[in-house]
Recover the amino acids of this structure.
C-alpha cells in the first residue's frame, strides 16, 4: 500500500479533539470521538497489511507482533516511566496506589477492563489518573490478539465471502453497542465487544479496496470527503458526555472517518487539505501526543490548588505536542528500524521493562501507595482519609451492588431496641460513633445506606431508579419492625436538589462537571416528570414530610439531620499537598458561611416544612461548624483534628462530634431515659 498523507492528516483530526476534550473546552464537548477515528484508521491500515501479506503467502504472526511492539511499546514505556517519577514526588498514597494498580493493567493490556471495574471515563476521579487514556490501547491490542488468527483462517476465502463475514462481525458488534448503550454504560464504553465494529469499519474499506483503487468522479470525491469531514466536525461540537456512546450515534463519526479514507486523495481538495505539511506533521506525532496529553493534564491539576484556566490548558496542549515531537523523533522512530534494534532486543527489552513495571505496580498496591516515600507529617494528614468506620462502608449499597434489606448490617445484635441509620454515603461515617453510644445504652444499630440516595420514600435519583425501590423497602422494614425506636435520617440534599456539585467560590470546586443527578419523585414505580425546578423541589419537600409523618405515626422517633457543610476541597489531600510543596498555612482552612447558606437555601426550606413534633428532633450540623469559632466561616478543623476525610464526608472525629451533639439533644428531650435494657 502506497503512503497516504491524508490518512496522517486524519490522525491529526483525531488527536487534537481528544486533547481539547480532556482540556475541558466546551466547543470540543464531543472530542472523545477522536479515539473512534483512530480505531477506524487502525482497522484500515492493519487489515491492509495483514490481508496483503496473507495474499502473498508471507504473513508471520511473530513479525506482526514485532511491528506492534516497535510501534506501541517504546513511547508507552517512556511516558509511563516519566509519569511514575512525578507520581512518586507528588501523589498521596491513595492516588499512588490507584496509579500502581493501573500500571499493572497497562502492562497487561487490560487497562480498559481495570477502568471499567474501578471508575468511569467521565468521572472526576478518572481525570486524575495519568493512565486513563491507555484503555483504547488495550482495546486495540486485545483485538489484535485474535484478528490476525481469524484472518489467517479466512484470508484464503474469496474476497466476497471474507467481506460478508467482516460485515457480519460489524453488525453484531454495533448491535451489542446499541443495546448496551442504554443499559451498561461503562462496560459499553470500555470493553472490546462494543468497539469491534469501529475497527471493522476500517477493515471493510481495506478489503473492498484491496488491489484496486476506488476511483470516482472528482466532484464525487470532493463531496464524499468533505461530507466525511463535516460529520466528524459535527460530532466534535454537538456530542457530549450525555450522548449514548458507543451506539448508533457513533455511526456519525465512524461514517465520517470512513468517507474521508475512501474519498480523500492527493489529487482532490480534501486530500490536499489533510495533506498539508503541518497537519501531516501532527498526524505523524499523534500517537505520542495522545500518550503525553493525559499525564500532562493530570500532573498540572495535581500541582495546582486552583482550577486551571483556559490559557493554562492551551499551553499544556502545546507542551503535549512539543514532547510528542521529541518522543516521536528520538524514541518512536529509532525503535521502528531493524538496523537499530533486532527482533530479539525488542522482545527481551519489552519483557524486561514490563516485568519491572509489573513488579513496581504490585509493590505500590501491596504497600498501599508506598507511604514511606513521603514525610511522616504528610502521611499522617493523608491518612485521615481512612479515619472512619471502614467496615460500615462495606455495608453500603451501590447501584452495582444493592444489599437486600434483610441482609443489611446490624450491630449490637444482643439488644432488642434498635436505632436505624438511613441515608446516603453521608450516613456511613455516623455508624461507628452511634454504635459506641448505643452500646452504652443497651441498643442495637441497623444500617440502611445507599450511595447518593437520599432517605426519602417515594423519591429516586434521576439516573438510578433502583434507589426509590430501596427506600420504600427501608420504610416498610422500619414500620414492620417493632423494635426500631429511633431513625437517623441524613443525606446530601443540596447535591440532588440543585443538581450540581459544590463550588465554595474560593477555588474549592469538587468536580469540574456537574454530576447531573437530580432528586425526582416517583409514583407507581415510574419517575414523575416535573416541568420546572421549583415544582420538582416542592414535590420532594412533600415526600420528606410524608416520610417523617409515616415514621412518627408508627411510633418511631426521627432525628432529621440537615445538610453537613460541604468543603469543596478534598481536605486531607489539600493540606497534605501544601506540606509536600512547602506551603505554610497561617490559619486553619475554612469556607464561607454565606456560600453555605446560599447552597442550602432550598434544603433548609424543605426540611423546615417538616411538622414540629415531640418525636422529631431537627439537627443542624452548621450550628456546630459555622459562624461559631470563626465568624462568617465554616471550620474544617478543630485544633489539629480534621473534621472531614474528603470534600464532604465527616471523619471519625467529625462524626463523633456530631453524634455526641445528637445524643445530648436526645437526652434533653427525654428520649434516652434508661428503661430496663431488654436483651433477646
Amino acid at each position: 500500500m502506497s503512503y497516504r498523507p491524508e490518512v496522517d492528516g486524519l490522525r491529526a483530526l483525531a488527536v487534537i479533539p481528544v486533547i481539547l476534550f480532556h482540556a475541558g473546552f466546551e466547543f470540543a464537548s464531543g472530542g472523545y470521538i477522536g479515539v473512534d477515528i483512530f480505531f477506524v484508521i487502525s482497522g484500515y491500515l492493519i487489515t491492509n497489511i495483514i490481508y496483503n501479506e496473507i495474499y502473498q503467502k508471507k504473513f508471520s504472526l511473530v513479525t506482526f507482533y514485532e511491528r506492534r511492539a516497535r510501534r506501541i511499546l517504546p513511547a508507552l514505556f517512556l511516558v509511563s516511566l516519566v509519569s511514575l517519577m512525578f507520581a512518586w514526588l507528588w501523589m498521596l498514597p491513595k492516588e499512588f496506589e490507584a496509579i500502581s494498580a493501573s500500571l499493572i493493567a497497562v502492562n497487561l493490556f487490560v487497562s480498559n477492563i481495570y477502568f471499567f471495574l474501578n471508575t468511569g471515563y467521565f468521572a472526576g476521579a478518572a481525570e486524575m489518573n495519568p493512565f486513563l487514556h491507555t484503555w483504547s490501547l488495550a482495546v486495540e491490542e486485545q483485538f489484535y490478539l485474535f484478528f490476525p488468527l481469524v484472518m489467517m483462517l479466512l484470508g484464503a476465502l474469496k474476497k466476497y465471502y471474507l467481506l460478508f463475514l467482516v460485515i457480519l462481525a460489524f453488525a453484531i458488534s454495533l448491535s451489542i453497542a446499541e443495546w448496551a448503550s442504554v443499559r451498561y454504560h461503562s462496560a459499553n464504553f470500555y470493553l472490546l465487544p462494543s468497539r469491534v465494529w469501529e475497527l471493522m469499519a476500517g477493515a471493510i474499506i481495506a478489503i473492498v479496496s484491496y488491489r484496486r483503487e476506488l476511483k470516482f468522479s472528482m466532484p464525487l470525491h470532493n463531496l464524499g470527503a468533505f461530507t466525511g469531514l463535516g460529520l466528524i466536525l459535527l460530532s466534535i461540537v454537538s456530542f457530549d458526555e450525555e450522548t449514548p456512546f458507543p451506539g448508533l450515534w457513533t455511526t456519525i463519526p465512524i461514517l465520517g472517518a470512513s468517507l474521508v479514507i475512501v474519498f480523500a486523495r492527493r489529487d482532490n481538495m480534501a486530500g490536499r487539505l489533510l495533506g498539508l505539511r503541518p497537519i501531516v506533521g501532527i498526524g505523524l506525532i499523534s500517537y505520542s501526543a495522545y500518550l503525553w496529553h493525559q499525564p500532562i493534564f493530570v500532573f498540572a491539576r495535581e500541582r495546582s490548588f486552583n482550577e486551571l484556566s483556559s490559557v493554562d490548558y492551551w499551553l499544556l496542549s502545546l507542551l503535549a505536542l512539543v514532547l510528542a515531537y521529541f518522543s516521536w523523533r528520538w524514541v518512536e522512530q529509532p525503535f521502528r528500524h531493524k538496523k537499530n534494534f533486532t527482533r530479539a532486543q525488542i522482545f527481551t527489552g519489552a519483557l524486561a521493562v514490563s516485568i519491572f513495571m509489573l513488579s513496581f505496580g504490585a509493590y505500590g498496591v501491596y504497600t498501599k501507595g508506598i507511604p514511606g516515600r513521603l514525610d511522616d507529617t504528610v502521611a499522617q494528614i493523608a491518612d485521615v482519609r481512612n479515619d472512619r468506620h471502614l467496615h460500615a462502608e462495606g455495608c453500603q449499597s451501590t447501584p452495582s451492588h444493592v444489599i437486600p434489606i434483610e441482609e443489611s448490617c446490624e450491630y449490637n445484635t444482643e439488644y432488642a431496641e434498635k436505632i436505624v441509620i438511613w441515608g446516603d454515603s453521608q450516613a456511613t461515617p455516623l455508624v461507628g460513633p452511634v454504635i459506641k453510644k448505643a452500646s452504652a445504652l443497651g441498643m442495637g444499630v441497623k444500617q440502611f445506606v445507599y450511595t447518593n440516595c437520599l432517605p426519602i420514600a417515594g423519591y429516586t435519583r434521576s439516573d438510578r431508579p433502583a434507589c426509590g425501590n430501596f427506600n420504600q423497602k427501608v420504610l416498610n422494614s422500619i414500620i414492620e419492625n417493632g423494635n426500631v425506636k429511633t431513625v437517623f435520617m441524613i443525606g446530601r440534599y443540596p447535591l440532588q436538589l440543585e443538581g450540581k456539585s459544590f463550588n465554595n467560590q474560593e477555588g474549592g470546586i469538587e468536580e469540574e462537571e456537574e454530576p447531573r443527578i437530580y432528586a425526582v419523585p416517583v409514583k407507581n414505580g415510574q419517575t414523575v416528570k416535573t416541568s420546572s425546578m421549583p415544582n420538582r423541589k416542592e414535590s420532594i419537600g412533600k415526600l420528606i414530610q410524608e416520610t417523617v409523618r409515616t415514621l412518627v405515626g408508627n411510633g418511631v422517633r426521627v432525628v432529621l439531620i440537615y445538610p453537613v457543610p460541604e468543603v469543596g476541597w478534598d481536605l486531607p489531600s489539600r493540606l497534605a499537598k501544601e506540606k509536600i510543596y512547602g506551603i505554610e498555612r497561617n490559619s486553619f482552612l475554612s469556607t464561607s458561611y454565606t456560600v453555605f447558606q446560599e447552597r442550602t437555601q432550598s434544603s433548609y426550606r424543605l426540611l423546615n416544612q417538616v411538622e414540629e413534633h415531640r418525636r422529631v428532633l431537627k439537627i443542624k450540623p452548621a450550628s456546630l461548624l459555622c459562624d461559631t469559632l470563626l465568624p462568617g466561616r465554616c471550620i474544617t478543623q478543630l485544633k489539629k483534628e480534621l473534621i472531614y476525610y474528603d470534600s464532604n464526608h465527616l471523619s471519625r472525629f467529625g462524626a463523633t462530634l456530631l453524634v455526641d451533639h445528637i445524643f445530648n439533644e436526645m437526652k434533653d428531650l427525654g428520649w434516652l431515659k434508661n428503661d430496663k435494657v431488654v436483651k433477646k
Q: What stands out?
A: The first helix runs from residue 5 to 22. Residues 66 and 343 are 7 Å apart (CA to CA). Residues 675-680 have pLDDT under 50 and may be disordered. The first strand starts at residue 410 and ends at 411.
